[in-house]
Each structure stands twice: as C-alpha cells, then as structure tokens.
Design a protein that fits this description.
Strand order of the largest sheet: 2-1-3-5-6-4
Number of domains: 2
CATH topology of the largest domain: Rossmann fold
Number of helices: 9
Distance between the termini: 32 Å
Largest sheet: 6 strands, mixed
Radius of gyration: 18 Å
CATH architecture of the largest domain: 3-Layer(aba) Sandwich
Strand content: 15-25%
C-alpha cells in the first residue's frame, strides 16, 4: 500500500460529513495510524490550501462548493472528471503537484446497483437538478446500455445546457412541471431535503413501481425517501453513494481496495441505522 502523510476532506462547510467515519474505520482496519480529517476551507483559501497539500504525500476529497474551482489547481485531471466538469478526489507525491479524478460517478453507479440489483438495459432515468451531482449521475448513465435520461431543473436553461453537453439526455424539463410519467428511476441530485422536510418532487408524480434514489444523505433518511418507500417505491438515500465513492477514492490513494464492509458498518453505526 502506498504511504500517505495526510488524508483530508476539503469543503465549506464540512462538519456534517460522514467521510471521516468510513475512511478512519478503513485505516484502523489496516492497522494504520494515519487519520482522515475534514477541513473547512473558504473559497478564498482554496488555492493556498491545495498548494500547501501539494508539498506533501497527500490524498483527499473535495466537496461543495469547490469541485469545479479546484480543477485549475490540478496537474492531471482524468478524462472522466473532465466529462463531469468537476473533481472530488485528489492525490499528490509531495513534489508540488496534484492529480485528480471524480469518484462520484462510480459512487452513483454503485448506489443504483445496490438499489436495483443490477443496471437493466434501456433504463429511463429522471435526474432532478443540473449541478455537479447531476453531472456525475448523467456521466454514469451515459455508459449504461440503451439508457436515456431527462434533466429537471428550476432554471430550465441549466437543464437545456446539460442536454446539449450529454447525448444520453433526451429531454430538458422544468422542476415546476417535471416530466416523470415514464421514468424507471427518479434521482434527486439537488440539496432539497438535506436540512428540511421539503420534497424535491411530490411522490404522487412518480409512476407506480419506479425506483427513487436521493443523493442527499444524513443521520436519518430523507422525508422523500421515507414517503416514496411508504408509497411502494424501492427507495434509498445517498449513504450508499457515499460508501462507493469512498471505496473508489481510497483505491486511488493507496492502489489497494479497502474493506468495504468495515466502511459500511461504520456508516451504519454513525447514523444509528440497522
């Protein structure tokens, strides 16, 4: 396993993140004394913080609001991250440069597989939102056989822009009139429901039998997930996406896979879930 001097999460804010819980559990399982730490970094301090980290053998994650802004501080950015238009994982060799990738794509695909059991052919996906999380979801969907996606945003122009950039997107819709009648999977890629009981879209608008995936996660499942499950929809929040993107990031840092079960059990314990 590659040696690292520091592992960090950079965001603003970061106090609610569960990433330290799962990564520290994985490190402890390997008998490592290294610890993963969350650092609250304001946009004004992002460049200087990354420059300091680049002089260490570091690894890290980047979360909101820095996933796009951090790109210009990277030496090498993976093709996948360039397609998404954002980075969320980086590492350095201690010589003043950082490389980056986007593991949210793998995280999203892993969460969908956990929810559906597999990725079926010709899946029709409705993605609520047109930001970085939506872009990662669309990038994943683009590799699925026969899949199509619709993008739904409060600002219709952003949904149209997403359609222009990704061939898999066949419709751009407004959140005020979401076109969900034929969706097999509805994904919330907005922050709606993170701190309130607000629903990104009414469950009644989702066709019977469609699955629901909320990329928001917290100590408890969101109201939208609970409401969807109570209405008979297969439903899950973003905790599994957090897990799978974390496994992918850990593998990039150390060139070795962590113990996924240890990481998942740590997340369940931290959220009080069974």
């Amino acid at each position: 396993m590659i040696d690292r001097e520091r592992l960090v999460l950079i965001g603003h804010p970061v106090s609610q993140s569960l990433s330290p819980v799962m990564h520290n559990a994985a490190l402890e399982a390997r008998g490592s004394s290294l610890r993963y730490e969350a650092i609250d970094v304001s946009p004004d301090d992002l460049d200087s913080t990354l420059a300091t980290l680049s002089r260490t053998k570091c690894g890290g994650n980047i979360t909101v609001p820095h996933k796009k802004a951090a790109m210009h501080s990277m030496r090498v950015i993976s093709d996948l991250a360039n397609r998404v238009g954002a980075v969320n994982t980086f590492w350095g060799d201690g010589y003043g440069a950082l490389d980056a990738d986007n593991t949210d794509v793998a995280g999203f695909e892993g969460a969908v597989r956990d929810l559906l059991g597999e990725i079926p052919s010709d899946l029709r996906v409705a993605v609520l939102g047109a930001g970085g999380s939506a872009a990662a979801a669309i990038t994943a969907i683009d590799s699925w056989p026969g899949a199509t996606a619709s993008v739904h945003a409060r600002d219709l122009a952003r949904a149209v822009s997403m359609r222009m950039r990704h061939n898999v997107v066949v419709r751009a819709c407004s959140m005020r009139d979401p076109c969900l009648s034929d969706a097999d999977l509805v994904v919330n890629a907005t922050p709606i429901g993170m701190e309130t009981d607000e629903l990104p879209v009414e469950v009644e608008r989702i066709r019977p039998g469609a699955a629901v995936l909320d990329l928001v996660y917290g100590r408890n499942e969101t109201t939208w997930v609970v409401s969807a499950r109570n209405a008979g929809h297969p439903a899950a929040d973003g905790l599994r996406m957090l897990l799978h993107q974390g496994v992918a990031a850990f593998t990039l840092w150390f060139h070795d896979e962590p113990d996924q079960a240890v990481m998942w059990n740590a997340l369940l314990s931290a959220t009080g879930r069974s």
